[in-house]
Structures are given as C-alpha cells and as structure tokens.
Amino acid sequence: MKKQSRFIFSVLAFGYAFLYIPLISVIVYSFNDSKLATVWGGFSTRWYVELFKNEQILDAAMLSLRIAMTSATLATIFGTMAGLILVRFGRFRGQTLFSGMITAPLVMPEVITGLSLLLLFVSLQQLIGWPGQRGFTTITIAHTTFAMAYVAVIVRARLATMDESLEEAAMDLGCRPLRIVFDITLPLIAPAMIAGWLLAFTLSLDDLVIASFVSGPGSSTLPMYIFSKVKLGVTPDINALASLIILIISVLVFAAWFTARRSESRV
Fold first, then answer.
1. Are 152 and 79 spatial neighbours (Cβ–Cβ below 8 Å)?
2. What is the pTM of this model?
3. What are the phi and psi torsion angles at 43 (to 5°)?
4. What angle do CA 252, 255, 261 make, to 5 degrees?
5. Among 3, 54, 125, 256, whose Cα sits 20 to 30 Å from the Cα of 12?
6. Burial tier of 71 (Cβ tally within 10 Å: 0-12, 13-18, 19+)
C-alpha cells in the first residue's frame, strides 16, 4: 500500500508541477528587463507600465470582458429556461430532438460552429442588412449560443436531483406556477445558475476560434490579440498581462475557498 501511495503521490506531483511550473515561469519573466520574453536581462517592472500604456491590449481586454459578461448572463437565462423545460415539462412532442439540439454544441467542433455562424451572419446581412458589421453583437450571440448548452446541462442536473415536494406543497396551498418558479425553484437552483454563469463567462473569455470567425475589423478580443502577438513573437508585456490574469484568478479562487470554508465552519 505504501508503494502504491508513493506512486500515486509522485504521479500527482509530476502532473501539478507540469501544470504550475510554466505559470510560475511566466510570472517570473514578467519582471524581466530584456525585450526578449525568454532571455533574462535583470529585474524590472517596466513591462507592467508598458502594458497599461498599450491601448490595443486595454481595448481588447475591455471588449472581452463586456462580451463575456453579456453572453454569460444571456446564456444563464436561456440555459435555465431550457433546463426547466427538459425536466419540469414532462414528455412532449420533439423532446428528444430538443434535448439533442441543446447538447449538440458540447461536442460540436468550434471550427464548424464558427463557420456556420459566419455564414448565418453573412446571409442575414445580405437579406435584411443586419448585422451592419461583425463585432460585439455577433461575438456575443455566438458565445451565448454555445455557452447556454453548458448552463442547460448544469441546471438540468440540479433540477433532476431536487426534491419536488416543496413545489408540490406550494401548489397544494394555492400558489400559482409562476410564483413557484420565482419563489421556490429559482432560489433552490441558484448555486447551479451561478456555476453555469461562471463557466459561461470563462468559456467566453477564453474563446479564440469562434470569435475569429464572427468578428470584424477593429473588434479583436483579448485571446485574438494574444494569438496575433504569438505569431509575430511574444513580448514581455504579454507575460505581464498573463501574470495579472493569474493573480486575479488566484484571488477569486481563494475568496471562493475561504467563503465555503466559513460556511462549513458555521454549520
């Protein structure tokens, strides 16, 4: 048993080291004074100053945040509605087709999704003149389309395991169905909705392939900007940007862990 435990621990340690050592190296080289991202030239914070002077990075970051927040909110709304329909509406004609259409984006290659959405937007522009140009609106629609599938799966799983006795008791007491949804069902599935929103936000903020298809001139998201810099050669300001993102994510993860820890201690 001891040998087996040591082997498992060694495998886990190697896996985590393989994951986190590159992240640590990015943080270290973000303080590099050299203009070359992989050659150490002394300690300096100049690239953080250059980062906040770079309007292209700031514009791309703000666009990505706006798109991620909007698409995550819309995906949570539509995904929750889809989950409610699949679990609470019982058997109906076309249920299997509807369920398959909801889960299809989960396994659909992003290249196919991006290409099909591009053809859709081009056809709509030719037919009705909308959208006038590809940018914030088209990227938001595209991200909402595939992110709502993830939200629907999460909410559907929560609803499937939820006790329906509270809803039935409310109906017996004369509560209307719409009131039951807002006063009982939604508060009970709120953790699943929050998890779906966070997942949709992350997927939108991280997306490169689909955004590349449905974006237009002057509407580059942050992943698109970073990818374009990689093709031309990574500069240390990208390391500084990555370090800030790692810091923000670490703070959020620690805050979530601390909040959950305090909740458990109170119970």
1. yes
2. 0.85
3. -80, 135
4. 140
5. 256
6. buried
HSE-CB for 79 with a 13 A CA cutoff:
35
With the C-alpha atoms ordered 36, 58, 136, 99, is the resulting torsion angle positive or negative? positive
Contacts of 67 by beta carbon, 8 Å cutoff, 6+ apart? 136, 139, 140, 143, 204, 221
CA distance 180 to 187: 10
43 pairs with which residues across the strands? 32
pLDDT at 217 > cutoff 60: yes
Three state DSSP letters for the chain: CHHHHHHHHHHHHHHHHHHHHHHHHHHHHCCECCCCCCCCCCECCHHHHHHHHCHHHHHHHHHHHHHHHHHHHHHHHHHHHHHHHHHHCCCCCCHHHHHHHHHHHHHCCHHHHHHHHHHHHHHHHHHHCCCCCCCHHHHHHHHHHHHHHHHHHHHHHHHHHCCCHHHHHHHHCCCCHHHHHHHHHHHHCHHHHHHHHHHHHHHHHHCCHHHHHHCCCCCCCHHHHHHHHHHHCCCHHHHHHHHHHHHHHHHHHHHHHHHHHHHHHHC
pLDDT score of 147 more than 80: yes
Indicate the range of 145-149, 153-157, 244-248 predicted with least confidence.
Answer: 244-248
Compute the average pLDDT of residues 174-190. 82
Q: What is the mean pLDDT of the chain?
A: 86
Residue 94 has pLDDT above 70, yes or no: yes
83 neighbors 159 (Cβ within 8 angstroms): yes
Domains, the chain, ordered by start: 53-238 (1.10.3720.10)
Provide the pLDDT for residue 143. 95
Given a cut of 70, whether residue 2 has pLDDT beyond it is no
